[in-house]
Each structure stands twice: as C-alpha cells, then as structure tokens.
UniProtKB/TrEMBL annotation:
Chain residue ranges for the region called Disordered: 579-607
Protein name: SH3 domain-containing protein
Keywords: Membrane, SH3 domain, Signal, Transmembrane, Transmembrane helix
GO CC entries: plasma membrane of growing cell tip
Superkingdom classification of source: Eukaryota
Signal peptide span: 1-26
Amino acid sequence: MPRNPPIRRLGAFAVAAAIIAPFATAASTPAPNDLPSVNFSKMGRVVFGGEFAGLDWFTSQSPFAVRAADNGTIVSYSATADTLVMRADDGTVTPIGATNDGGRISSMCWSNDGILYVGGEFNQFGGINANSVVSYSPSQAKFSAMGTGIAGPVETLYCDDADHDVWAGGFFSAPESLGNVGRWSTETSAWAAVPFGGLNGRVRAISSSLDGGSLYFGGEFTTQFADNSNTTARTMASVSIAPPNTITTGDSGYLVPVTIPAAASEFGGLHINAAPATNQDQYNNADSIVCPNTGPWLARDASVATVNILGYSYLTGSGIRMSNGLVGGRGTTSFTVTTLPDNTVLTLKYTDPVTREIKTCSKNCPLSVDPNVHAQDFLFEGGSRALTGFNIVLDSWQGAGAGVNYIQLLSNGAYASAVSSNNQGFCGPSNSSIHTIGDWDNANAPSNISGTEQGYMSSTVPVNSPSDTSITLYPWVGSAGFYKIYLIIPGCNNIGDCASRTTVDVAIFPTEGGTPYTATINQRVTEDTEVLIYDGLVDASNTTFNPTIRVALPNDPAKVGSSNYVVVAAGVQMQLTGLSTGQESSPGSSSSVSGGASGSQTGAPAPVTTVVGQSTVVVTPTGTQPLTTVIGGSTVIITPTATLASSASSVTSSGSIIPAPTSSGVRTAFGVYEYVRSSRNLNAINALLPNQTETGVTRLGFSLDVNNNQTAARDFQVTTIVPADNLVLVGGSFKTRDWSNIASVDKDSGIITPLAGQGLNGAVAAAVTVGQYVYVGGQFTSTVNGGDQLNRLARYDVGGKKWEAVEEGVDGPVTDIVPFKDGLLIVGNFSNVLASNGSTPTGGYALYNTSTSKWFNSGIVYGTATAAAGTDTNAYFGGRIRGASRNAVNGVASLSSKDGIGHISNLEGVAFSNQGSAPAPTNPTRRSLTARWLSRIHQGLVERQAAAQAAPYSEEPVVAPASLAGTYWTNSSNANTMVTIMGGNFSQGTGDNLISGVAFQSNGALTGPPNPVSGVVRALEVHKDMLYIGGSGVSVTGKGSSFLALNLKTNSWKEPMPPTLSAGSNTTVNVNAIKAQIGADIIIVGGNFAQAGDLPCPVICQWNAAKTQWTRVGNNAPSAGEVKSLAFNNNSTLVAGGSFVIGGKNVYAARYTFNDSGANGAWEPLDGLPGPVQSIVMNDHNASNIFAAGFDASTAKPYLQHWNGGAWTEQNSSLLMDGTSIENLAFVPLSKEHTARGSIENNRMLMATGNVFLAGQGNVSSALYDGSQWYPYLVGSSPTGDMGTGSSLFWSESNFSFSLSSHPYLARGLVVLVAMAIATGLILLIVLLILLVAFCFRRQDRKRRPAQDMYEKDEARSEVSSTHNLIHSHVQTALEQSFAPAQYAPGHHPGAAMAAAGAAGVGAGAYAQHRAAESSDSHYLDAVEYSQPVEAEEYGAAGSWEGSDEGRETVMRYDFCGPELQSGELSMKAGQRVIVLDDEQSDEWWYARDPATGRQGVVPATYVL
C-alpha cells in the first residue's frame, strides 16, 4: 500500500525563534473586530502596495462606504465648504461640522471650560445659524450660536481664560464694540464691552503678555498718540559740550573732538613724541598728551619742547584745544603749531581770556596760565584742514619749565569712520559706531594726500544674486544744531574697482522725532569724494538715539561692467553750520526761526551742495518729487521725503526707524497695539491716546507706520505677536531696511532688534513660544541674508540669536501653529513634511515632537487647513478638507498581525516623494472614477475578433508614488538579513542619493541599486541572488532596458544584460509578470512584447539563467496579445492570464506543463472566460483549482471566476460594480475559521486587490472573498482625497501553512516557554520509551546468545548493541541542542534537535512538515538545495548503518530538498536512484546513499518507492 508523503512541520523551537524576531515597523493601526481575521504572521513579512497616500481598514464610516439615510446625524466632508475635524488620541480624524457652501474657517481657540470656539466667514455651521463665530461642546457634541454673532469675517480668536473672555478680531462690527474687536464673556454667555473701544482696521492676531497684564493686537490698523504729555519730548537746543572753564572760540564748544583711533597703527602708524621730557616718571608719558585726565606732561626744566603727533592716515580738524600743564608754578606761556606734512605754520583764531575779544596768532600764540582756565580753543584760520599730524613747539614758560595737560584736535562738528576699529578711541571708547548687514571687509587705500592712506569698508555682491547689503553709521553728535553731512567715498582709481561701482541708497535720520531723508548716490567716483547728503537740523546723541546714516545696495542698482557690485564707505563727516535755540520746527515743517550764533537757519533742509569728482552741484529739495542731477557720468538724486510722509522719524541704537512728534503733535503707530489691562476709559479707534499708554510695542508700531507710508506694498500687515522672555516677536508681511517680516522689540525699552539674518524672506503667518524657542510658520524659505533652508517652518533660538530648521520644513505655506501635547500642531496649505531622509505625506496638518525634534506619524488629511486648536487629548483643525487617513504610507504599507488582530503601519525608512521614476502623466486620471477604458477595450476587442487579434489593454497612468511589485531576499552575506524589495513608480532622495524605480528596505533604512531605474516597474523576481526587473519603459542609463538583472550580492548590474525585449510598431514593451521555475534556472516573463533580442518570442518568453539565452515556451506559444498574470504549480505547471492568441483564436487563460525531459509541450487554453484576465491565482498550487479576475469582453463588466479542472464558474460577480479593476489575487490564511463556501476552504480567503466596487457596501482597494460573500477590507486614498488603488500583495514566507491547528494568540514569551516545555516533555517521554525497548531487548539477549560473528568487526565494543548506542547518542544530542543557549543563533536552528532525534528514529513525525503551496502572485525566496556528506562519527560505522553494499536500490517518489533540510538529511529529487542502507531502525526515516555522489543521510520512508 503506497504511503502518502508525511507533512513536514516546523519544530517548536523554530516557531519560538520566528516569534522572537518579528518584522519591525513603526506605529500601527489595528483592524476593527468586525473584519475577517487574516493571520498575516503566518505569511512572514507582508507588504501591500499601490497608488495611494493613505491606507485604512474598512469601516461603515469609511469615506467610500455606502451609508443608509442618517437623517443628518452623520457629518461628512465637503468639497464646497470648510469642515471642522477632530483628531482623536488614537489618530482617527473625524469630521464634526461644516460651514455653509463657500464659508471658511480662519481661527479657533480652546477654552479651559471645555468649549471650542471657531471663527471665520460663514452664516451657518454644524447645521445651525451662526454668524462668523460659533462654539462647540465636545461633551455634548453640540454647536451653539454666540448671541447674534458678528457681522463680518473673524480672522483671529483668543481664549482669555484668566478673565473668562473670548476675544475676536477681524474686519467686522460686533455688539458692544466700535469695530473689528469683539469680547465674549464666558461667564454671562453674552457680548461685553471692549474697554478700548476697538481698532480702526483689520485685526489678525491677539495674544497675551507672559504675565497676563497686557493683550497684544496685530493687524492692519493704526493708533494715534498725543504728544502734549510725552515724557520723552525735549527741545533740540544747542548745548556746549566743552569741559567747564574752557575758553571757547565761536562755536568750538559744540564741536566733538576727533577720536584718535586705538588701532591707528593698523592704517596710519600713529606716533606721539614729546621731548625733551622731565625726569619725573609721573609726568613724562607722551601718550597722556592726547588723552584728557591722564596727564600732565612736563618738559625738561628750562627747555624749549616739541610735541609731535604724526600718522600716515589723514584726519580732518578745525582747531585744537590746549590745556596747560600747571604743576608747581610752572606752565607754558606760548606755543607755535605747524601742520604736517606741509610744515605750514598755522594762523590760529582764539578768544582772549581777559578781554573776550577774538584775536589771531601764528607764532608764540599765548596760552593762559590762569589756574581757573581749564583749556583754550584755537581754531584754524580759513576753516578745517586735512592733515596727517602736527608739531607744537612750547616756546616759552613760567616757573621751571613748560608743560601740557592735554591737546585735542577739534572736528568740524562730528565724525564717524566706516571702519569700526577707527571708532575705538586711543584714549578709550568712542560713542560713534557702525552696523553692517552682509559681508564687509576692512581695507585701506592711498588718499588724496601724498604718502598717506585711508581706511574704508567694502562689500562685494554678485550681480546674479544680490542680497541686502548695507552699512549704518552712528556718529556721536555732542550738541544739536545745524549741520552739513558728507558721505566720504574713496576714489575707485586708487582701489581699481571702477567697473564694479554702482549706485547706493542713502537714508539720513537726523533727529529724534524728525523725518527721514533718502538720496541715491552713484559711487563710481575716480577720486576721493565727500558727497553732501544733508544740510539741516540735527539732534544730539543720547542714550537711545544717534543721528543715523545708512548706505545700502538698492533693489535695482545701476548696471556695472563686471559680475559683482562693489559698495564702499570710508565714513561720514558732519560740519556744524549753525546753532539751534530749540524753538525750530523739526525737518519737514514749513515754519522757520532764527538760527544760532552762526547765522539764520530754517527748519526745512537748506540747498544741498554736492561735490562729485571735480564738479559741484547745488540741489534745493523743494516740491514732492525727487530731483536727479547728472554730472560727468555720476548721478545724484535727492528725495525730499519730508514732503512725502506725514510722520517723522528717528533711529534707535539698532538702526530701526522710530517716528517722533510731527508738527501736529500726533504720533501714529501701525499694525500693533498693546492694551494694558489696568488702563481705563480709552478710545483707540477714533481718538488720541495719551502718551502714558505708550509701551515698547508701541514704538515698534511707530517704526512700522513710517515704513508703511514709504512702501507701495498693499499687504503690509502684522499677523502674529508672541512674547518670549523680555521680548515681543512680531511677524507678518512687512519690510524695512533693517528687518523683514519678523522683528523683536524689548517690551520695556522699545528697542527694536532685527533677528538673525535680518528676518525672513517671506511672510510670517503664525508663531508660538516653546521654552527657549519661538516656532514660526509662513511662506518663507530662508532668512533675508540667505543661508540654511527653512522651508516655511523654523524656530528661533532667543538666547542663541540664531535660526534653526524644524526637520526640513514642509512643502507649502503654514497658516497656524498651536501647542499640542508634547509638541506642536501645524496646519496649512502643504502636502508633505520634509526630513533628511525624504518626505512623508500628511496633507494639510502635521504633528511635531519638540522634545525629540522629530515628526510624529500623524496620518494624512486631504486638503488644506487654516486654523487649529489643541486640548490634552484631541486636536481640532479646520479648512477645505476632503478626507483623511490614519496611515500616511505613500504607496506602500506593512500588514502584520498581533494577538490575532491585523495592523497597518508604514515601512521604516520609506519616504517616497511625489516625483516618480517615470515621467508624470499630462492629465492623470483615476481608475476609481471611470470605467471608460473598459469600454475602449471592449470596442477594440469586437473590432479585432474576426481577425483573431488580441485586444490591447488600455493602461491608465500610474501616479507617483506607487509601489506595484515586490519580493524578498535573504542576504546570506549579512547575517541572513531579510531585505524587502519594492518596484513601481517612485523616487526618494536626490543627486547621488537618488533611489528610483526599485528600492531595498532593511533594518529601517532604504537603499537602491547602483544606478536609478527609470520607468514604471511592474514585476520583480529573485532567483539565486539575482533580481529580475520588468515593467513599462524600464531602463537603466548605460546598462539596459525592458528586462533587467541585478546581482544582489554585489549590488551590481549583470554584465551583459539579457538581450532587450522589443515590441512591434506603435506599441510599447510591458513586462507584467516574472516567475522563476522552482528547481530550475528558468525565468518566465509575460507581458506585451514581440521578440527577445533577435528571437521572435511574443507575449511570453523564458530566460535560461544558466545558458543566458531566450527561448520560446511551448510549441504553440501565444503569437500576439498581452499576458497580465502568471502562476506556477510548484515547478511543473504554469498558468497564464491575459488577452492573447493561441492557435489562431483569442484566449484569456491557458495552462502549460513542463516536461522532465526538457522537450517543448503544448499550451492548453482554459476556455470559458467571458473576457480578458487581469489577475490569476492557484489555490494551494493546485492547477485544477484556479481563480481569475477580469472584465467581460462584451459588457465590460468585472468578473471573478473559478476553474475546477474542467470548467469556469461564476463567483458572485454580481456584487462587483462597473469600474471594478482587480489587479492582484492572493489566498491569505485566517486566524479563525469561516464556514466553507464553494471551492474555498474554511481556513483561508481570497484577497482581491485593485479598485473594488462592492454593491451595497462601498468602494475599497482590497476585498476578501470566502467562496460566496464579499467583505470590504482595505481602503486606500489618494492625495486629493479620492479612492486609492491597490496593486500588489507580497510576503516573505514562501510555503506558509493554512492550518488552524496552532493557536496564534499566545504572547511570544509564553509561546517560547510552552514550546520548550513541550519539547522537553516529549524528549523525556521518548527517552523512557527507548529505555523500555532497550530493557526488553536486553532480556531477549540474555535468553539467546547472539551469533559470534556479530562482534567480529569490533572486539572492543561493549555488549550494548549498535542499535542501543546509536539511539543513546542521538537522544543525548537532541537533549543537548534543546537546552543549548545558542539555540536561536544562525546556523543553530532549533529544528536540528528534532532532526537528530529523527535520525534515531524518534520524533520524525513532529519534525517533518509539508510546506503548503500558495498564490502565484506572491514572490518568494528561491529554494536552496542543501545536502552534505555525512561525517563518519555522526552515524557510526556499525551494523546496518555502515555504508556497505548490502543496501537495496530503489527510486525516490517525491522531491526531498529545500532550505528547511537539517544536518544529516539527504537531499534528493523525485526519480533519482537511491540505495537504502538501513530501513530497520525506524519506520519513518531510512538511512540511504546517493549512488551518483556517494552522499549519505536520512530520507523520509514515505518518499521512497
């Protein structure tokens, strides 16, 4: 009686090992309990691929489910209105309510009383009437109107829990408000009065100060402040800055002494010599001569002394201040001054200390010795002079000798060098300073004075990428007065940069509270030039203000003759021209008053005299238009901005404009308002606010107002205000010369500080403070000055004063950011979050963990969100949202089982972008939306049937990212690491890191082939470490196309590639399926092609990997058409599905059997299908149990049919609605049995993947079929919220069992313990049985004496028989391996213990396992034949186990081979000769030898004839 092959089972320890090493994935989503329970764990690693952005389990609430009438209780998404959604803690996104059609949501806030407030522009919300604002109670699931609402759009809401208010801002009229601001009391549930009336423009932001004492408002409004009580107001009267008891001459007391640079030697080599000096150490330091309060210096007794101050950089001075060195009755009585380098004796003008008359002198100028006179001023006759130094001879003295306390060079009025080090005084710090934006370098060049140099600053800016480049000079001005301000420009001839010189914009801020002036200057001057840029009243410097001159590269510079612009500046010179009484109007006023001591001056700017090269022009800035003058190729433009703006300006120490009182006594602030809660009786909308209510934020508003008046931009606005420490950060859409779109202001002092990089290069929409960071979102991509990519989302380190990227940002504008749990909820008009390893689709919202600085797997919504709010558990956001998915998987997802429940998760490391490996379709369409292509196929089929030509498939474009095929490979070179291989239309990374078309995922990382694959990959197969790739338009540059081969071990393309597949005219090559024949080197390729290399081989062809050649499959192989799907029955029978021609007739499915002899067989059409096949699969590898899915050739209706070996039968296709397209069929095991129906067993179901439209249930991407009923299963969704398409299902366990005998629900640790206990118990039981048998044998041996020759082969053997020794040896081995600590290590498979026991004739039944066959659409690891010679010591050499010739020869009935074979087992194939050496030790395992190779080992007895 023939015996059936025994079922080979995985040993208990192997099961435990498999459970210990699960497939590691990210956070997952469990399946609902009402879905069929698929046991994915049996299948190993399971991946589901297709064209989708999100993937979910089907529920009755799925967006594509068919719903019964809900009477309005079920909320759905709207394509024509904004929808409010809630994201629960488990990631589920649920629509709560929607506006009326065309309505919008723009703001929301969460109140601590458990109410959500929503604002926008709508008249209905959640089914109730509500005007622009509504409240929602989650506990009651109820919307409520807020009184009569608000008439107009609400742009912002702030929940003021401390005062039990909800503040609304926008552009509206509201109850108890004068406009644009509303206040709802949560205590009285009524509108309350706004304590400051309201605001006169659109309000876009409301927030609170950190201490809660103030509310900040931002937007597009203005507030006005009266100046009659301004505590900062002061008169600009000239005040002498000369030291007390100084005898001044003319206006010398108002002149700032020239700063002797501390770093003078860097550019000028400054030397101070005084000789002969006294020998008294405390009085002989020459440096003290130029530093007040460090002297005096005394000459040698009774000696004429010379003081020499010399440098090689020129200084400009108008006189000197001499302080006598009166020590012990001595002192200088006369002196003489000689200038350098011309050695001219100067004529000086001075005031007689006694008569107060103005006198002159040249030699022996008198110096007072009156101890009550601290110093005397001597002015140069003829005005200021440029000099490099001077000699002062102390001609005469009184007492023992001459002496000097100090000598100072007096400026023309004030001076600031553009070189920062030159503003650092030799005698101590100077109050003049500079501030630069951009890259600036110190340099020096020859000056107009022979042999001298001047320092200057230079900035080089590429013409093709101009940036904000400026230098701002802050000269310290000692006294208010009338000044001429000159910009000093070094000549380009001496520097050699004339071709790069261009125009610059110059802005002058002369007074605190005065009007800014601008001019455009051409810097292409050949010689050193002083350009007059201002003539008028200038305020004195104080602790918060310096007159400011800003030189900047304009937006549209003059063209240059090189690739770079060069901007230069040496400094600014201020010449005092008159004194101020303090009664003059500020610049820009029309009134005029008497001037100071030097004559009459007007408050308006005087005519401007400008010197360019050797030419002079006088410009009088009258009227309202700029005046342009061209002189010798140089252009000077003076813009009288005082006539262009109503508000005046000044500058803070940071260089930002702060308006000052105008002639009308009113100052205007734009865009910001701080309401201090302690203030009372205010009217901010149409009345003047008292100056006492001005704050630091108000000063920023003054600056914004000036810049708003000077810009033509219409979107000048503030959209967010957030406090951070002592600062307030204000963001929006605005630009000044020093900062753009965001700035910080000290809330107390009002000092405005540009943020790093001078702000951001795009509008800011939202900001929130978290710890030391302020997170900012908007439309920017970097800072104004460039640098790191910020991509619309960034954080500012307040303490470190630097910008940092938030991961890699997002790919669209951000509209709102709110705190949520341990991070941030971010919403906007974006689709993907960006990270260093690629992008992840999230739709219009994202979650960011501020602790880990990583994105959180938030799922995906389809559409854009505009506003958000967060609670302790749930997140709320709203906008034009069309749908959502809990799992953002971007074309590929992992399916797994845990405790009997299915889970969806994304593959770690996979972050495919929207850019595919194939060119994007011009007008992509969705199969889920139309069945028109089926009609076209039907029409083409009817037209061609008469000619027996197969109808071509009409391929829909594959929209990236899409994963269409997959397989697995074990990397034996890397600890047997399992590698997931995916193919499709996708890409990830850029440049050298680009992964395209084919990707490998392992250990949480994604890699790719050495060269990116182009085209759409539709088929993959691994055979003996070689990956075969096919698809549509598939190619690798320089390697091959259509059908590719990659060596996985070396990660290198096969050389040479298989000859290319080609198609006929007007068609393209499609490779749809690739299958390897098990146990052979044959690769079957199916698709749409005409020949392989030079071989005509249409539709289906085989590649012989060993012979590296193409051959046809069968004598009557298909002659035309296309194969869509292939399935193998182990290694002998191949089934093909598609639409092709065999023997002159149309065929949709056919079967081919391979002959053992290798001779070609014949294709057998499986007639009876109604139309083309899209997918075909065998049940349990049974060629007489086949399922096929396709569409009817006559009606284009979808079908599913079953082949029972003789005929096809319909499988409830009536539930498949028009438009259904099933692209993949596969049988999956169940965790719980179902009632067996039709031809499908109770332990499995058929999974149909594609676009499946089930009547009465809904549309899904994958459905299960039990032989009678359909079950919606997986729902994919596209980035637009439409139905997504499933394409592939592949798994790693090639021969999993459908058996329900093993319990899948135990915890892994418990399974391990149970397995160990069972194995140990079985082994102990077996040992007892063996010992009992041995005892019986011993009793028999004692009764009868064995033959003497039985022991002649080995006289030293013990009396125990060879059988007993062998049994004892293998039992001991099994026990040792059962308890070995390395039982799970590679190479120590736990099944080896059972193999050892099996060799002894025990436990073989538990050790052997038949690997159940599965779907042809799966992709497996190739079986690796394993056998090895048996070591002599392993089995001994006695008895019938000895390899003698006494065995009998027979033939193997079945294949006994594969990777699961253990040590000691003999690999054999069906039909091979085998010599049985021992069939007595066990009824189930026989010891045998392969006569062809001499290998020995055990084989299952039932596998042998």
